Amino acid sequence: MARKAEAGRCDPGVPPMTAGRAISQALSRAAGEMFDLPLAVQAIRERRMTLADLPELLEDLSLLALIEGPEEGLGLLALPPATLSTLIEVQMTGRVGRAVAPPRRPTRVDAAMAAAFVDTFLEGVEEGLMGMEDQVWAGGYRYASHLDDPRPLGLLLEDLGYRVWQLDLLLGPPPGRSAGLLWAVPAQGRFRQQPVQCAAEAATHVAPAPDSDAAGAADWARRMEGTVMGTQAVLEAVLHRVTLPLAAVMAFAPGTQIPLPEEALERLSLEGAGGRRLAPARLGQHRGFRALRLASDEDEAALPQAVKPLKMTSAPPFEPGASPFAARSAAPPATAGTGALGLAMDWDGEAGEAPAKPPARRGSSA
After folding, report:
1. At 301, is the pLDDT very low, low, confident or very high (cuts 50, 70, 90)?
2. Which of 43, 57, 126, 333 yields a CA-CA distance of 20 to 30 A from 205?
């Protein structure tokens, strides 16, 4: 009877997991896997306290990372200056130096560089306590934001009891650098546990259908597509590109005119990141707004090819203190079938009216 009863139980195999052991293992694993940083937990202490008493345990100039959990619950993970500077130093230089950086106020950059470490640690604690009662209060928390000052904690966190864990750490190779960490979460957990199968149950578990791999791949492809298609893309409509000496650009003033070829209105270029040309376009308007009409390569090839851009070399030499485009006489004379457009630029970036009106375009509409 005893053997039959034991057959249905999970084989312990290893010593039972505790909350303190899960926290220590998760912290050491996060530092080792992410930064190849040796981390040893010298001491770990658990306390129960109210929100009013929590700021007394915070070291000055600590990075205060707000963590969000199930049902919009908020907690706190504080990285003292020695811990934060070591994490930043390892990411920047790849090693722990002998000298400790002087304490300073954490910045947004520091918080961004420490966010992944915080999430990895919290995820490790959640996995380590899987199937245990402690997972109810420890699971589901991830990095949300950071605070520059502990005073707003009383307004952001709920006024209830908290589980507070204080850790004394040694970072880096022996003898190590003394550091610490503080983790506080609501004492009454809100995480919904998932049932865990032991080895005996796993042996009798029915194998998934052969199509499960295909279904998983399709789901991953769908989520990947949603992420990619939701990414912001910046497009630029390029009317014309002009190369000028720096002295001419520095001489720009209100009323300065830059000559443009007539074909610029018919041969806009829609470009993406890095100046990559995506499609040709034409300039127009729609309901009183500037608009672009995308054109095909065949339409672009059908446009007249006689119009050529103005040659900047034919302009008179530039004189210091004067604009090379101040007078229209500086532009080369127009030949039959060609013309020049002047684009008057104001300081507010709006384009003024062109001094010369281009001829009517055949087969085009606004």
Report:
1. low
2. 126
